[in-house]
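Let's study my pick:
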Amino acid sequence: MEAFKITFLMTFLTVALIRTGRMLGGEEGAWVAFIFALATHGISYWFGDKIILWIYGAKEIEGNKAPRLYRIVQELTFRDQMPMPRFYLLPQRSPIAFATGRDEKHAAVAIQQDIHGLDEAKLRSVLARDLSQIKHRDRIAGIVTASVIGAISMFVNILG
């Protein structure tokens, strides 16, 4: 079902981009928008997680550098029969944690260092939420939507 939703979303956003291209550049604009949409979808699907982690300046860490975090995620993933995601530390000062990735096998959890100070129950709930987003593929829908909206904006600026 999740694959259907993502396919529907990508199709809807592609049609929106093509219509924008047609309004701004006629038939030629529609074709340019179609090619642009395919490139945007491909990049956002295959590399969206890497781009987001790069934007945030996240650094990958091993489990032994954050044993408490690793243990909690290991327990949660075992319970939900999920593979272990990669871990990243964020340099931001505000407490933030998020999950990214196109599926369970290509998932990453990024967490700000000071969030480790949360008590175990709160940290567990934050990580459970992030892992739930991975399991239900919520992150890929957000990545694709954001990239296509950005593409439409860029396309309008180029042709407008």
Observations:
- Strands lie at 59-61, 86-90, 97-100, 108-112.
- Helices lie at 2-56, 67-79, 120-135, 138-159.
